[in-house]
Amino acid sequence: MSTSSVADDATHINKNSSDNSDDNISFSYTTAVLKVSYDGTHFSGWTGGNAGDKPNQSKVKQTNNNKSTQQSQKQRQSRRSRTLQRKGGGWYDSNNKVRTVDHTIRMALAKIYGNVDPKNIIFEACSRTDAGVHATSLVAQFYCYNDQVINMPNGPTDSTSFVQLPFNSDFSKLVYVLNRMLPPDVRILAASPTPIYSVKAFHPTLFTQSKTYVYRFSIGSIQDPLQSRFVWHLDGSSGRAMGMNGNKFDLNHAMQAAKMFVSANAQDYAAFGSVMRGNEKNRVRSTICTITRCDLMRENSEQLPSWEQGKSSEGVDNNGSKRYGSRLNMDGAPIHPFGVKKGPQTFTVAITGDRFMYKMVRNIVGTIVAVACGHNELEDIQQALAARRWGNGPSGSRRICAPARGLKLVEVSYPDEIHFDWQSG
Prior knowledge:
Layout: H1 3-17, H2 21-26, E1 31-38, H3 64-86, H4 101-113, E2 121-125, E3 134-144, H5 166-169, H6 171-181, E4 186-193, E5 196-197, E6 200-201, E7 210-219, E8 232-234, H7 251-259, E9 267-268, E10 288-289, E11 291-300, E12 327-328, E13 334-335, E14 345-353, H8 360-372, H9 378-387, E15 407-413
Parallel strand pairs: 3-15, 7-8
Antiparallel strand pairs: 1-3, 1-4, 2-3, 5-6, 7-14, 7-15, 9-10, 11-14, 12-13
Helix pairs in contact: 7-8
């Protein structure tokens, strides 16, 4: 598609965004953008190595070495499956394939397109979250090609090799149908025609200005079980952070550590990235990032556990039955029986940056918590940023990577020139 035709598309889209929805429906799009929210507990990230999605899977020669390698991989997968089942779920679907958000949505879209091959549907997301990480507003573009894709679409109406969107480009109906086909731990919040930035084709990753992640962790003698899938609880028993608990937590040290990661200009954060795995293992990536925000906030210093919320202020419930939860004194402060002084204190770390490396946010949060608990020192962060590697600091302690369950992608920002026409179901 020529530059002039792309510009014409941009003019047509901007004109149609101000018209009514009927006009938008009559316009034939071949690519769209989705705003996705999901609970990542039982997903192996946004995308992963599904056996059926590997194009070279049938070309692997069955040598003795390969057979032994496959057996060891199956054993590791079996151990991981048993471990996850004990924790309340797993990353594998009924066909014993790795369960990913990308694959789950593509399977639903393949049926909506008319039972096309799911491999013909391409997803490009603004972020590929790790296994167990959640998202509330991930932006992803998708399109379906006819036979063989050569390039990504040059515009939202590029029909050279791409199939028209289902339901005659009715985005509200697309959202409605998708949400009734998807499992309950993933939802499409809205859909939009793919915008055009200047005369360039839109890409959800390349045109991102900033991303904001939120990480939640708690301290206290008892963890709130209803928050266990979304909050990292520090009780000193975790192998990842042995000995780190609320008794040693220093909020002032944690806030000082958080401020050390903020930089007005681009900075090298190589010491806080992790080595990529799988197909991305040998890929060379930049370690230069700009972090404009790293705030630590306490949600509620006297937070009631979930099992003690919703109680009346007296020792008897409204229906007259005796209860054994907490009650409130005249000042509104909780009084906890059975020796439980108070519920867990929950903290939130909000980090905004132009880009992040693999496990970078989790490594930063783990370092902040480690400094607060006395596991690391503030000088360790200074030395790591200066030397571009971890381990030269005075404490000599290893770096802590916070678990995935507390992390959530909450916001993605784009330039003001990029306009989305979000439509919900």
